[in-house]
Amino acid sequence: MKINPFQLLEKTFGGSGYDLACAGASTALLFDRKKGSPSWKEVHFLPPYAEQLFFIYLGKKQNSREGIAHYRAKAAKLPPQYFDQISALSEAFLTEKELKYAEKIILEHEHLIANIIELPRAKTLFFADFWGEIKSLGAWGGDFILATTDRSAAKTREYFYQKGFSTVLSFEEMILKS
What we know:
The protein is of the alpha+beta class.
């Protein structure tokens, strides 16, 4: 008997399927659940400013099931152009060559999601004094954030260490090398 892992996930935990798609991917991907079924495409993402991207482990694991249910309840009331705008921002981020414009894309994306789910941004909650941008990854405010910086790696790491976050990974340390 062959079992579709996405159907199994849907019938048990109710997740989006993003983690399953990532598990089988060999590179970055764009994920979507249009019309209820998961779809994704693998993409190349190695921007010129990769050395200015850091992943910080927050250790604040969110309940994915609750997060997804909360998002779906809010998103169901929105017009389709919201999702088109979010998708367009994701595509723009992948191709942006300059950090300052990538940060603007992150900020706009974060504001859109924050407005949809009616929750504050991680930057607002924990890093209001940070000089770069902060992007929540996974369930909002959960395990990891992406931070952009125009300062040295040492200064960036020190900032997060002083905030009590000891796992600060560079883009190079985080990406899967194939």
